[in-house]
């Protein structure tokens, strides 16, 4: 599974990345977490509000700092 | 209710008179803190809930392909309710430009969004009453429309960084939230907002309380009253570096107003704090060239100064 955190480097984006790693650790799954900070790449997903979360190339959330629990629900 | 709480605390707990200097300052502090924090929690919750229905992706869709006049008013109104943290400025700008939304309309949205936000609304309402809060919103919207129109007329498209036009925008349907998710989102936002600003608020109210109790009456009338034409421009210039401290600045303004600052001066100060900020300009620099940033700042600043004078005349 590939998980991408889209964000230009603001505080919320970093927090989202941490929450994602935490959620993966709790679920004990194998996933590749990437941080995408380049604007053109972010825009390619059609996302206009950051941070956004992409799971296997599908945008599942934009403009929200998801909690660990919310991410676990999305990954399950 | 909040006034009673403050009365009770000052007179029955501290055994001070509310008319004494210290008593007055403490009263101001307790009253403002409790009232503003409670209002903030409620208002941020309500507005966040509404906001969950208007993400920028939808705003973009609604604005593209509309007639200019309609799009311009719509952009200003949507700016009021749309969520938009300054770190999203760049993707938002690119998304709008890519969708073929005219530059002027994009700026209208970028101006209206920060000026009219729930935090400044709560502060204005609790400090100056609903009349000034409504006037602020109204003039904020008008400013956004006019400034955007001016920028559109100036044909500034060539001052947008060229890579912006080359970005290919993907289409991704964002999943709709359920009512429960929206409520959770609104609650989280309300709690986060209060967590983020309470310290600034307390500091601001603390300084305000000190001014309230210790700065002599009419001290400022001489320097910043209606008759001083420089008061408004100075307020605007002072407002720019205070970006993240709108919350802390307002209680000080409140106290200063009681000491004679004209209301228009206070309002343009507030507008300058929210609309013009260094971090925002740094972000905008990624997508537009310095000349356009300069024009953006100049147009908005002139507008805010004009609004300050108008307020001072009509209020």
Architecture of chain A, CATH level 2? 3-Layer(aba) Sandwich
Most extensive chain interface and residues per partner: A-B, 27 and 27 residues
The number of strands of chain B is 0
Residues in helix, % of chain B = over 70%
Number of helices of chain B: 16
- What is the general shape of chain A? globular
End-to-end separation of chain B? 28 Å
Disulfide bonds (chain A): 10-13
Protein name (chain A): Small redox-active disulfide protein 2
Active site (chain A): 10 (nucleophile), 13 (nucleophile)
Pfam family, one (chain A): Thioredoxin_3
Relevant terms:
heterodimer, A: 76 residues, alpha+beta, Glutaredoxin, four-stranded mixed β-sheet, 4 strands, 41% helix, 25% strand, B: 315 residues, mainly alpha, 75% helix, 0% strand, globular
Reconstruct the topology from this structure.
The complex is a heterodimer of chains A (76) and B (315).
Chain A: E1 2-6, H1 11-27, E2 32-36, H2 39-44, E3 52-55, E4 58-62, H3 68-75
Parallel strand pairs in A: 1-2
Antiparallel strand pairs in A: 1-3, 3-4
Helix pairs in contact in A: 1-3
Chain B: H1 2-13, H2 21-51, H3 56-63, H4 68-81, H5 89-98, H6 103-115, H7 118-128, H8 130-153, H9 162-166, H10 179-214, H11 221-224, H12 231-239, H13 246-258, H14 263-275, H15 278-284, H16 290-314
Helix pairs in contact in B: 1-2, 2-7, 2-10, 4-6, 4-8, 6-8, 6-14, 7-8, 7-13, 8-16, 10-13, 12-14, 13-14, 14-16
Disulfide bonds (chain A): 10-13
Protein name (chain A): Small redox-active disulfide protein 2
InterPro entries (chain A): Thioredoxin-like_fold, Thioredoxin-like_sf, THIRX-like_proc
């Amino acid at each position: 599974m590939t998980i991408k955190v889209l964000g230009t480097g603001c505080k919320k984006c970093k927090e989202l990345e941490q929450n994602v790693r935490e959620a993966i650790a709790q679920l004990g799954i194998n996933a590749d977490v990437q941080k995408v900070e380049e604007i053109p790449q972010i825009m390619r997903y059609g996302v206009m509000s950051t941070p956004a979360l992409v799971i296997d190339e599908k945008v599942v959330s934009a403009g929200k700092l998801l909690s660990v629990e919310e991410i676990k629900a999305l990954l399950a | 209710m909040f006034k009673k709480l403050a009365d009770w605390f000052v007179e029955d707990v501290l055994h001070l008179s509310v008319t004494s200097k210290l008593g007055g300052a403490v009263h101001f502090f307790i009253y403002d803190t409790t009232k503003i924090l409670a209002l903030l929690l409620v208002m941020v919750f309500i507005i966040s809930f509404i906001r969950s229905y208007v993400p920028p992706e939808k705003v973009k869709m609604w604005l593209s392909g509309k007639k200019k006049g309609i799009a311009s008013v719509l952009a200003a109104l949507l700016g009021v309710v749309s969520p938009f943290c300054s770190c999203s400025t760049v993707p938002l700008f690119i998304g709008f430009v890519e969708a073929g939304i005219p530059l002027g309309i994009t700026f209208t949205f970028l101006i209206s969004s920060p000026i009219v936000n729930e935090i400044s609304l709560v502060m204005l309402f609790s400090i100056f009453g609903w009349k000034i809060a409504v006037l602020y919103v109204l003039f904020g919207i008008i400013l956004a429309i006019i400034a955007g129109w001016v920028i559109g007329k100036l044909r500034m498209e060539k001052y947008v960084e060229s890579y912006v036009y080359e970005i290919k925008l993907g289409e991704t349907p964002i999943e709709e939230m359920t009512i429960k998710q929206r409520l959770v989102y609104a609650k989280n936002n309300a709690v986060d907002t209060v967590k983020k600003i309470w310290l600034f608020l307390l500091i601001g109210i603390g300084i305000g309380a000190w001014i309230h109790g210790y700065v002599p009456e009419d001290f400022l009338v001489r320097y910043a009253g209606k008759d001083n034409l420089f008061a408004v421009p100075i307020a605007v210039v002072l407002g720019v570096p205070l970006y993240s401290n709108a919350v802390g600045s307002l209680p000080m303004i409140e106290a200063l107003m009681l000491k004679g600052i004209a209301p228009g001066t206070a309002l343009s100060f507030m507008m300058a704090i929210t609309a013009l900020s260094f971090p925002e300009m740094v972000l905008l620099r990624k997508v537009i060239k310095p000349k356009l940033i300069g024009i953006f700042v100049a147009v908005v600043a002139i507008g805010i100064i004009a609004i300050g004078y108008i307020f001072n005349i009509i209020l």
